Amino acid sequence: MHPAYSVIFFTVSSGIGFGMLMIAGGLAAIGRMPIDGVFGFVVMAAALATAAAGLLSSTLHLGHPERAWRALSQWRTSWLSREGIAAIATFPTALLFGWGWVIAGSLAFPYACAGGIAALLALATVYSTGKIYQSLVTIRAWHDSLVTPVYVALALASGALWLAVIARALNYADPAMTHLPIGLLVLGWLMKWRYWVRRDTDTGGPTVGTATGLGRDGTPVRLLESPHTQENFVMREMGYRIARKHAVKLRRVAQVLAFALPIVLTGLAMLPAMAGWPALAFSLLAAALGTIGIATERWLFFAEARHAVTLYYGAERA
Amino acid sequence: MTALPEETTKALGLVIDLDTCVGCHACAVNCKEWNTGGHSAPLTDEDPYGGDTVGVWFNRIHAFEVGEGDMGRTVHFPRSCLHCETPACVTVCPTGASYKREADGIVLVDEDLCIGCKLCSWACPYGAREYDHDAGVMKKCTLCIDRIYNENLPEAERVPACVSTCPAGARHFGDLSDPASAVSELVAARGGFDLMPELGMKPTNKYLPPRPRTNTRKEADSAGPMEQAGGFLGLLDRVFSR
Known about the structure:
With about 325 residues, chain A is mainly α. Chain A is built from eleven helices and one strand, in the order ααααααααβααα. The mean pLDDT of chain B is about 95.
C-alpha cells in the first residue's frame, strides 16, 4: 500500500494527542492528577493540538474536504465514520475536563468524570482507527487481530512519552506519569514483535490462481500482459512494494527508535542522580526518538502491506 | 445508505467467457467511450498526450499465461466491477455515497456525496474503483444503468456497452438471481466461477473457464511425415525441394 505522508502524520500525531488524553483523563478520573492550572493547560493544549492537527491533516488527502462532515453519517457500517464521530465527541468532553482543571481549578465530580469520559472517547477513536485497517480483508497484513491493539498501545506509549516530558518540565515527578512510558513501550514492542513474526510465517491468502479462478486446481498462472502501459490509480494507490532487505532494515530502525532507546532513556531519567535538567533532557530525547520510531513503524505498516488487487498486476500471493 | 439491502429483487451482472475472449480491448474502449458521456461523466484522463498518462477506466483487459509446456495457453482476462452481493466497498463508505441498489443489485457511487477518501478502493479486492483526481471523487462501473433502462435505445441495445460491442460474444448480461435466465443457465452449463470467493464479497459477475484443449501438439505430431508422391506431383516436389 502506498504510504501517504498525510495519513502517517495523522495517525502518529493524533495517536500522541489521544494517547495523552487517555492517560491524563484516566489519571484525573482516579484522582492522580495534580490540580495545577499551568500543568493542566500545557497537557490539554498539547493533547488537543496534536489530536486536532492529525485530524485536520487527514482531511487534506480528501478529494472534497468541504464535504468531510458527511463522513459522520454512516456509523452503522463504517469504522471511518465511527472514528470521526468518536474524535469529534472527544473534544467537547475534553474541553469540559480542561475547563475544570485549568480555569475552575477543580478535578472534583463533573470534571473528573468528564476526564474519564474524554479518555474513553479518545480510546474509542484510536480503536476505530485500528479497526478501519483491520476490517479490510483485502489486505492480509492488516486483517490481523493485533493491528488494533498495536494502534492503541502505540498511541498510549507515545502520549505517555510526551506527558512524561511535560511532567518533568513542570517538576511533577509522579511515577504514574514518569514511569508509565516504560510499561507501555514494552507492551507495544511485544505485540509488534508478535505481529511481525505472525506476518512472516503466514503462508495463506489469495493467489493469482484464485484471483483469476484459472489456477483453482493448482495450475500455474502468470501475468503475461498488463492491460495498460502506464500505471493507473489502482497500481499507484495499492501497488506500492518495498524490497525485503529494506523492510528488514527499517524494522530494526523502528524497533531501536520506537522501543529500545525510549525505554533506556526513560529508565535513565528515573535515576536519582539524573534528577532535574538531565532527566528532562533524557525524557525529551526519548519522546522525540520514540515519535520518529513510531512514524517509521507506521510507514512500514503501509509499505509492507500487499493488496489483493496486486494479483492482477503480477503478484503471486497477497 | 451504506447498509446493504437484505436482498435485491434482481442481481444484474455479467458473465464473461474466458474461452472466447480474444483480448481485443473493444469492451474497454467502448466502455470508456460510452461512460465518459454517461452517468459518471467524464472519465478524466490526465496528461492524455504526455508521457505520464493516468485515466479512469471501468474495464481493464489483462492477459495471463495458464499452465506450462504443451498445456500452456494464453487467457485474456477482462476485469471490471463484479457488483458483489456483499460489497465491502459499500459498507466502509463513511458518507453513504456508495450504495447497492435494492431493485437490481447494481453498486453505484453518488458523486455529490463522495468526499474522495479512497477507502472503498482499499476495500475492493478486484480493483474496480478508480479515483478521478480531477473531480475529487471515486468512479466505477455502473453496469451502464444509462443504457440498460434507456427507452431511447432500441431494445436490443439495452445492454452494457461492453456487452454490445464484444465481437467474440464473450460477454453476457442478465439477471443472475433468476435460475431460469440465459446467463444463469450459461453459468450452470459451463461451470461458471467466482473470483477470490475466499474473501467473502460474493461477486454477482461470473467467469466461464476456458474449455479443455483438444488440439494438443501430441495429436499434431502423430500425423507423421507425408508420403513421397510419385508421377508429376513427385517431379514438382523434387524440383521445389532443391
